[in-house]
Specification:
Shape: globular
Strand content: under 5%
CATH architecture of the domain at 189-384: Up-down Bundle
CATH topology of the domain at 189-384: Four Helix Bundle (Hemerythrin (Met), subunit A)
Number of helices: 16
Helix content: over 70%
Oligomer: single chain
Radius of gyration: 21 Å
Number of strands: 0
């Protein structure tokens, strides 16, 4: 019986990985302008999700931490697809569907809330609830809405998005009710965790600031909003530095913080990199490689946690995070014309500067990922 359960669990994981690859293909086809092909892949992802939930019954047989992080990856990919559609529409039309932007924020907010609540439950040694009807319907509506927007079915876009937002709200309320009816869950967040949360909450506002003028060419943005975008990134870096320091100084290091800190970094940095793709500062393949490294290391960390093992932070990971922040700041600084004018000869190399910086970031990120996998051979041996 145990062997059969393990076999079904393995098939479910493989199915989930294949579904994630399908979503990555959807993002790729959106960026190269093949909307119909992307919508066909969305249909495949919809069918695969149904099979995973109702045929393989992944929610019933999967281990808690595996189930949580598979859901996180799936949610991140859904958010990435919807954000890509939103950026595509900004680029292709003068009037942008604001409801689509609101929907992207709701999808991200739901993902963050569900992840935080679930981590809290697992930290307390309690059992995660199965996906409820509202949650399943919200996922179904989100996927259908993707297809409707990809095919530019204008008569149905707003209807589908409103339905998706309402179902997201219903599923979030249902999960929050289940979570908070247990008094033991009502615990205040530490100051360090609140700083970490601020990066996640402010990330959607960075999108709004970056595309304030509804133009993908960032050079056309207002100087005020360019400076504001730079200040937000500096704020992200400052909170990333302070949350760990404060947690250790105040004795508030927690399991939630250990998971939340890298998660918030991924959310903020990947959002900024997607903005860079839209404005031409980075090619899709570089950001895809960075995403592949980040998701692979997080999956490895989750595998270690499921076996009760600790995967400590590596120096290469710290260097990678620092370099990503410095590179982002350098690009945003260079995008401010008065600052460019202060540096002799910088105007001549600006056309290739963002791409060169992103190339260095991509290389260091991949080297860091290789370092993590090489140093974690003892963890991989347990699964291979």
């Amino acid at each position: 019986m145990t062997e059969k359960r393990d076999d079904v669990r393995l098939r479910s994981r493989i199915w989930s990985i294949l579904r994630a690859l399908i979503f990555i293909c959807v993002i790729y086809f959106i960026w190269i302008g093949m909307a119909k092909t992307a919508s066909a892949f969305v249909l495949i992802a919809l069918i695969m999700g149904w099979v995973n939930l109702y045929q393989l019954r992944s929610q019933e047989i999967e281990k808690p931490y595996y189930r949580l992080w598979l859901n996180v990856v799936d949610g991140l990919l859904q958010f990435s697809v919807m954000t890509s559609i939103f950026i595509r529409d900004i680029y292709n039309s003068e009037s942008v569907e604001k409801l689509l932007g609101i929907g992207c924020v709701f999808i991200l907010a739901r993902l963050i809330a569900h992840t935080l609540f679930s981590l809290g439950v697992l930290r307390e040694g309690k059992k995660l609830p199965q996906k409820r009807r509202w949650s399943k319907l919200a996922n179904l509506a989100t996927t259908i809405t993707m297809g409707v927007y990809l095919l530019n079915l204008e008569d149905y876009q707003q209807i589908c998005m409103v339905a998706t937002i309402l179902l997201i709200l219903a599923s979030t309320v249902a999960y929050a009710y289940w979570y908070y009816r247990d008094p033991s869950h009502r615990k205040p967040l530490s100051i360090a965790s609140q700083l970490t949360m601020s990066r996640i909450v402010l990330t959607p506002f960075f999108l709004w600031v970056f595309f304030y003028d509804n133009d993908l060419d960032y050079s056309n943005n207002s100087l005020v909003f360019k400076v504001l975008a730079l200040l937000m990134v500096l704020g992200f870096m400052l909170t990333d530095f302070l949350d760990g320091k404060l947690a250790r100084a105040m004795g508030e290091v927690s399991t939630l913080g250990k998971y939340l800190d890298p998660f918030s970094d991924k959310i903020s940095n990947m959002t900024i990199f997607m903005c860079f793709i839209a404005t031409g500062y980075a090619p899709v393949w570089m950001v895809a490689l960075i995403y592949f490294r980040e998701s692979s290391v997080e999956t490895l960390r989750t595998l270690a946690a499921s076996e009760g093992l600790i995967m400590p932070a590596r120096k290469s990971g710290k260097w990678k995070t620092a370099l990503q922040g410095i590179g982002i700041v350098a690009i945003l600084l260079g995008a401010i014309e008065p600052i460019r004018a202060l540096i002799p000869g910088f105007e001549n190399i600006w056309s290739v500067f963002p791409m060169a910086v992103m190339g260095v970031i991509t290389a260091i990120t991949l080297i860091s990922g290789i370092d993590y996998f090489y140093s974690s051979k003892h963890i991989l041996k347990k699964f291979v």
